[in-house]
Design a protein that fits this description.
It is a single chain. This protein has about 375 residues and is of the alpha+beta class. About 30% of the residues lie in helices and about 35% in strands. The protein is built from ten helices and 22 strands. Strands 1, 2, 6, 7, 8, 9, 10, 18, 21 and 22 form a ten-stranded antiparallel sheet that branches. α4 packs across α10.
Length: about 375
């Protein structure tokens, strides 16, 4: 039996690279190595992506692999190509047994740093957005920036993932191969959606403050965030959207009455939880997540107006940033997280991203500094 599976695996992957994909949460770590097929296509109502997913799962099962898995990345703009990676099998372990020894960091020398969005451009976009809000066209928008770093050496994707999970044990860490031998990787704090049989859960975040190294100062920041009318207002847009989109698929559900504070390695966030019991006819995990995407937490309100503003004024192509990534099995169970606190790895170049929610009362300079603080999660991986 082992010989037959090995032979089938060699045949199946002959035209594809044997690239590792990883996804980690506080509850489990998933590692997949035997890449069978990779699909690059938009995942929206105009494309037959669901049929292609079904066909891939059925084909892999027919080769004698009963537990295939899809690990993929969806762009912010679903009119662009997503990357869907299909693996013949995967290993799932608990975090304790999955812990790997820390790698000795090789000193990095930064050769070049380039802003894809300069601060004056970002702040000008914020002011345009505030003007649109004052005219009644939008209530919220999320604007972002990106910076590309070039180092003197290539980085091992596996080592980056190990460092990320060690530095951010409570985040959703991911390492996913995409087109052109690149990887997206990161440590997202935000669960867009998980589905396990008929149980569904979402943990949206909106409203943030950078952490300090001083305990007393952190207590002050947490209290300020929790009682901030501006941040509560921003957060409510996200909660209302999640409840509206998911409740119609649930027989019963519950949502946080008031937000909590979620703490990451670099930030504080307002955090709420939605959970429910799905109807038998509810979509699979990926399609449920797509119904939520893009949320006001990464786009704005109303969504179509905010999205068009971003595409017209932000000044660069987000691609996978503020999209979603995660995994799904052939039964439709899975986890999908918002692609934030992330980077795009291309040999010795790393592109990092960060955004901030803009509502009435936002200050352009303050929002720029928030994006810089959020980028620190990823810079810590490279000891900067």
């Amino acid at each position: 039996m082992t010989t037959q599976k090995s032979s089938a695996s060699q045949s199946l992957i002959s035209n594809y690279q044997n690239q590792l994909a990883c996804f980690a949460s506080r509850n489990h770590h998933i590692y997949a190595q035997h890449l069978i097929h990779q699909i690059h296509m938009p995942v929206n109502s105009d494309t037959p992506f669901n049929q292609q997913i079904t066909d891939c799962f059925n084909f892999i099962k027919a080769q004698g692999y009963p537990h295939p898995i899809l690990i993929g990345a969806i762009p912010f703009d679903t009119n662009q190509n997503a990357t869907l990676n299909f693996y013949s099998e995967f290993e799932q372990t608990t975090p304790n047994s999955a812990q790997q020894p820390a790698h000795t960091a090789t000193p990095n020398t930064m050769l070049h740093q380039k802003k894809l969005v300069e601060r004056p451009v970002f702040e000008h976009s914020v002011k345009l957005a505030l003007k649109a809000m004052n005219s009644g066209n939008m209530q919220k928008i999320v604007l972002s920036q990106a910076t590309e770093f070039e180092f003197n050496q290539q980085h091992s994707p596996e080592q980056l993932f190990t460092t990320l999970t060690r530095q951010n044990p409570d985040a959703y860490s991911f390492l996913i191969p995409v087109e052109d031998n690149q990887y997206i990787f990161g440590a997202s704090p935000e669960l867009l959606l998980s589905r396990q049989q008929q149980q569904v859960r979402s943990n949206p975040l909106a409203g943030s403050r950078p952490r300090s190294s001083n305990t007393e100062e952190n207590n002050r920041i947490r209290n300020e965030l929790y009682h901030s009318a501006k941040d509560r207002y921003e957060h409510q847009f996200v909660i209302d959207n999640i409840r509206h989109q998911l409740s119609k698929y649930c027989n019963e559900y519950s949502a946080s009455e008031t937000p909590d504070i979620l703490t990451t390695s670099t930030m504080f966030h307002l955090s709420s939880v939605f959970q429910g019991q799905l109807q038998p006819s509810a979509p699979d995990a990926l399609n449920l997540a797509l119904h939520l995407h893009p949320t006001p937490a990464v786009c704005g309100t109303p969504t179509p107006v905010a999205k068009q503003f971003i595409l017209s004024h932000e000044g660069y192509n987000r691609h996978y940033y503020s999209g979603l990534n995660g995994w799904m099995d052939a039964e439709g169970n899975g986890e999908w997280v918002v692609t934030i606190r992330n980077g795009l790895l291309n040999q010795n170049k790393i592109r990092l991203y960060a955004g901030a929610g803009i509502v009435v009362g936002s200050d352009a300079a303050t929002e720029w500094l928030e994006t810089e603080a959020k980028m620190q999660t990823m810079l810590n991986v490279f000891q900067f």
